[in-house]
Design brief:
The chain is α/β, with parallel strands linked by helices and 573 residues long. The chain is built from 15 helices and 13 strands. Strand 2, helix 14 and strand 3 form a beta-alpha-beta unit. Helix 1 packs antiparallel against helix 2, helix 7 runs antiparallel to helix 8 and helix 9 packs antiparallel against helix 10.
Length: 573
């Protein structure tokens, strides 16, 4: 199953006999592991557990050894891993190992529970989605399997892997009772980049598919290191949101409140413990040489300075090996220097309030970025194609820019959780925006958007969407599938009728829809399961309409917005 990688060498090792000293136990154990003598290794670990049953690391090691031993006992492996995970809940390698043991043992419900924990902690990625789908399929939960295979197909992968997932999407529909859907998807194989398969189509149409032929899933033969990389997507564990909300980065909020460094030389007395420095608005022309002694520096604020040679600045910054967070707001940048690749370890880059008209493709070298902020670059009209390389990006802020679109390549940044693109000039959104299956916050307010792509209905994690101040007249019916959407704002648009697609939203408690050409609010709105407040026009929606709504839902707060106070606001139709 897995190659053994001993993660922790515990001090109490056992022997085949109880007469050996601890040191002798250690020597014998190391020799057994080196020779891949799994049987002897297990006996040694049994003795270790007998001597110290509270050392959970030993249980983990024994489980890993047993995965190599033939025949192995899946129930014993599960038991050892369960003991270990009871006190080490965050060990993803142990949880994934237990998942595979559950899967092989056909404990599918427990297997899916482990995968769900991994997805909650690491987000949706190709590896985890595929295995959740496989588990659901084997458990005949075809609706769950179909959804997971579909989400998996939005993410990158090899042609073979994508083709396999597409076939299982078809199979999930077929065995789930949607034969017409299976036929339709099979007919579209060429449109998805795969070869036409007439034989498979014939088997579907003639009902000759046998479920037993499609459940022999093979668990991957991976080292624990490879497994960890697949689970984590090779992105760091830096929390740009600090676990609070997705509207803005609390990490940046904290850094913004750090005291400004007036005398950098004073920091050198304890330079090993210097992790953050604020040199904003210090009239710097170049970096002070003293900063290069702070090799543990992780966050640096240089906003409000005017550097004479920006290329030299990046060369100097590259001498700080642990630098992850860089603030270059208001430094007068018109373009990024070509040597931006020198900062490839950056995870947070703030370039707000500069003078960019474009971003060169070299920015694609910053593949570890988790947060990119470009707000208030008013002449920036487009993002570079290279943005598709930001596979770790979680937050993008392009508010207050001159962007006329969110380009299609952005839909490949599958780790995105938050996009702020309000107060720009955006007319079009990527057709593939539904690929952003981890997205929770989307602010597109006050742009020039006339239509939303249908794929927006695939944003199953979306909690908040702001669409006020655009040119929308209708919403796609797919928006009713946003099951976790808590709030939506549609004020200052062109709606002449209340968009009934909203009435199917199960989690929404707040709707802003004032300053549209609405004559009434449908009474069905008051029956929405979670609705608590709606913001409407005072002078258009009648008191009788409001009274009827509140009669159905007395706790709903109807806020009557007076549009007359928006003297310079958006013109109504």
């Amino acid at each position: 199953m897995y190659r053994i990688i001993i993660v922790t060498l515990f001090y109490l090792l056992t022997s085949c006999t109880s007469n050996l000293s601890d040191q002798e136990l250690k020597i014998q154990y190391d020799e057994a592991i080196g020779l891949k003598n799994w049987g002897k290794s297990i006996k040694l670990l049994d003795e270790a557990i007998k001597r110290n049953p509270k050392d959970t690391e030993v249980y983990f090691s024994r489980a890993l050894v047993k995965t190599n031993y033939t025949p192995n006992s899946l129930d014993e492996i599960i038991s050892d891993l369960s003991i270990y995970l009871a006190t080490n809940k965050k060990n993803h390698k142990a949880r994934m190992t237990r998942f595979h043991a559950f899967f092989k043992r056909k404990y599918f419900e427990k297997a899916m529970s482990d995968i769900d924990v991994l997805i909650d902690e690491n987000g949706k990625n190709p590896f985890l989605l595929s295995w959740k789908a496989n588990c659901a399929f084997a458990n005949k939960k075809f609706d769950v399997a179909e959804r997971c295979y579909n989400e998996r197909l939005y993410l990158s992968g090899t042609i073979e892997d994508l083709r396999n997932n597409y076939y299982y999407l078809i199979l999930s529909k077929y065995f789930g009772g949607n034969k017409d859907g299976a036929i339709w998807d099979c007919a579209f194989l060429p449109d998805r980049g795969f070869k036409e398969d007439e034989a498979f189509m014939k088997m579907i149409m003639e009902d000759k598919l046998d479920f037993k032929n499609y459940i022999n899933f093979q668990t991957p033969n991976l080292s624990l290191h490879q497994l960890e990389a697949l689970i984590n997507n090779n992105c760091s564990d830096l929390d740009v949101f600090q676990g609070k909300n997705y509207f803005r980065s609390e990490l940046l909020e904290q850094l913004a409140h750090l005291p400004r460094t007036e005398n950098i030389k004073e920091l050198l007395t304890n330079k090993e413990k210097v992790y953050s420095i604020d040199l904003s608005y210090s009239e710097l022309k170049e970096l002070p040489k003293e900063i290069f002694q702070c090799l543990n520096l992780q966050a640096l604020n240089l906003s409000g300075n005017r550097f004479t040679d920006v290329e030299k600045l990046l060369v100097d910054l590259s001498k700080l090996p642990n630098l992850k967070i860089l603030d270059l707001n208001r430094v007068g940048l018109k373009q990024l220097p070509n040597n931006i690749h020198l900062l490839s370890n950056l995870e947070v880059l703030c370039l707000d309030n500069n003078k960019f008209t474009f971003l060169n493709e070299d920015i694609g070298a910053l593949t570890k970025l988790k947060l990119l902020s470009l707000s208030n670059n008013k002449k920036l009209s487009d993002l570079p194609k290279a943005i598709e390389k930001f596979k770790c990006l979680q937050r993008l802020d392009v508010s207050g820019t001159g962007l006329i679109r969110l380009r299609e390549e952005l839909s490949r940044c599958n780790e995105l959780v938050s996009i702020s693109a309000n107060a720009s000039k955006i007319k079009t959104l990527p057709e593939g925006i539904g690929n952003l299956i981890n997205l929770k916050h989307l602010n597109l307010g006050y742009n020039k958007i006339e239509e939303l792509p249908k794929s927006i209905g695939n944003l199953k994690e979306l909690q908040d969407i702001s669409l006020g101040g655009n040119e929308l007249k209708t919403l796609p019916k797919e928006i009713s599938g946003l099951e976790k959407l808590v709030s939506i704002s549609l004020e200052f648009n062109r709606f002449e009728k209340f968009p009934k697609e909203l009435l199917s939203l199960k989690s929404t408690y707040s709707i802003w829809i004032h300053n549209n050409s609405l004559k009434e609010i449908p009474l069905e709105l008051a029956k929405m399961p979670k609705i608590e407040r709606i913001l409407i026009d005072h002078e258009v929606i009648t008191d009788q309409n409001i009274a009827e709504l509140k009669k159905i839902n007395p706790i709903m707060y109807v806020i009557k917005e007076d549009a007359r106070k928006y003297v310079k606001g958006k013109k109504r139709k």
